[in-house]
Amino acid sequence: MEKPFKDLYPFFRYIQPFRMFYIFTFTSMLIQTILGLVQPMFFKRLIDNVFNAPDPINHLSEFLIIISILLLIRVVSTVLGMVGSVYTTRVTTSATNALEFDVLRKLHLVPMRYHDRHAPGEIFPRLYGDPSQIIGFYMSFVPQMAASLLRMILVFFVVIYHLWWAGLIALLPAIPMWFISRFNIRYFKKISDKQFKKQQDLYMRILDMLHGMKIVKVFKKSNFEMNRFRIIQNEFRQLQIEAAKRSAWMSPLISTIGTLGGGIVFLAGAARLMGLFGFNQSTFSLGTLFMVLSYVWQLSDPITNFANFSSRLGGIRGASERILDLLKEQEIQQEDIGRNRIESDNILDFKDVTFSYDTGRPVLNKVSFSIKPGEKIGLVGPSGSGKTTILNLICGFYNPDSGMIQVGGNVPGHVNSGPPRSPLLSLAMQGGELFQGTIRENLGYGRSDITDDDLDHALEIVEAREFTAALPNGLDTMVGEGSRILSAGQMQRLSLARAIAANAEILIMDEATSWVDLWTEQRIFSRLIQEMKSKTLLCISHRLHLMQMMDQILVLRNGRLINKGTHHELIHSDSFYSSSWSLRDCDGNRD
Description:
It is a single chain. By secondary structure, the protein is of the alpha/beta class. Helix content is about 60%, strand content about 10%. It has helices spanning about 5-10, 20-50, 60-110, 110-115, 120-125, 130-160, 165-170, 175-210, 215-220, 220-275, 285-325, 385-395, 440-445, 450-460, 465-470, 490-500, 520-530, 565-575, 575-580, and strands at about 350-355, 365-370, 375-380, 400-405, 425-430, 435-440, 480, 505-510, 535-540, 550-555, 560-565. The strands form 3 sheets. The chain has a 6-stranded mixed beta sheet with strand order 5-8-9-3-10-11, sandwiched between helices. Helix 3 (about 60-110) runs antiparallel to helix 6, helix 7 packs antiparallel against helix 10 and helix 10 (about 220-275) packs antiparallel against helix 11. The longest helix has about 50 residues, at about 220-275.
């Protein structure tokens, strides 16, 4: 089996749930092929028995019967084509949706390292574009190829039966066609991969420009960005033109080769009818020549189709390889709950944890600490010291290289694995990301049973009730990607309100109020500490005035836990912390 078909075979399972519809469309196409092969026989009878008869008017009844049969064949073929087209669309859309869903599901299951290595502009075409090409292979390519193969076999034997030499001549174009198709598959696979790469570059260029539009305008780089986009766009266009040029001269060549056999058969048949070169015309009729020519030209069509399909196979093969590469990615390993478990009264345990994003470059080195339920813990340290990495490991985004992590009695991979009522973990990050939807939908994202009172309480804690009430539609105002009705600080507060409304046992904050003014931030934290007496809070912030509220502060440097204690203890025992505290308000905003 050719490698393109090997790559595509695993995707047939998306067609199987609709196999009855698929069988119908497949069968209807084969029936249409057979009906098309019957017609020349009736045309032969019309020419020989009616039109060439000494008195054609006496054969009127036969003429009407043949015309009626031909009309019936046309009607049946048309109806089968219409119904088959509807079923084809139904199966294609359903199977494509199923494959797209599995690709999306896989993107949720692969480790975060995969998303670190692949930009959104690279992932997006694999989700929308490649699946439709793959399903199109089964719904369009396979039935057409089967119909063409059936036509070739039947036509060959019919032509051989009537004129053996015509059948041999008609098959001669298949030899150069085979070499052309082999060459085309490799060429169009290569050009398809290049086009996909340039398309990725275009997507990423657009996303970068849209996300960084303010920076572009401040530095007056609009012309620069448009020129850079135009360069990539022109390179992509050149690849399209290159492929079009190949098809432009290849298609007429293939068509000419395909019809060459029919031309030779026509000349030989005409010579026989006219009695040239010693041929005996008595055993050869005009109707026979017409019928044989019809079949020979029908034979050239599937041969041409097989050659032209090679250009499509190149693109389909590239799509299948990209999807298979993603589907074969190793998923996050969910360890057994009992594995490496220790008996502990702590809500969180780190024991000799070492972790690296890149092999040989540890970000954390044998970090150990424990947190009891209800404790308020701060994480401080210079940028790159490993603070956010600890949160990533707690949330299960990555697995440690060595050591043990336990959150609420489970390894992080099992945290929040149950129904999203009151999750163990909730998270508020610096970006204040909000999903496309209403504010109400965003605030209730972490819980399925949230009430309006819960939402109102969370908004009160982060001082967001006033500005949300002033919005055009209140909590039903649409926000998310592309929304510009909220400031960065307002988005951060809504993101924090979402984390609070989840009512989790552990609230993780990673610079979650960095865009909020100092006074509002102080009030939010004071209220939050009061409300979360029985809950655990883990907070990263460079604003050390917040650390005064923490029960314990962990100080990290170069991936190691170098000190821990309360604010007052660290002021006197840790030079980094004390020097950072002395600089806490130099810029009036950040520590």
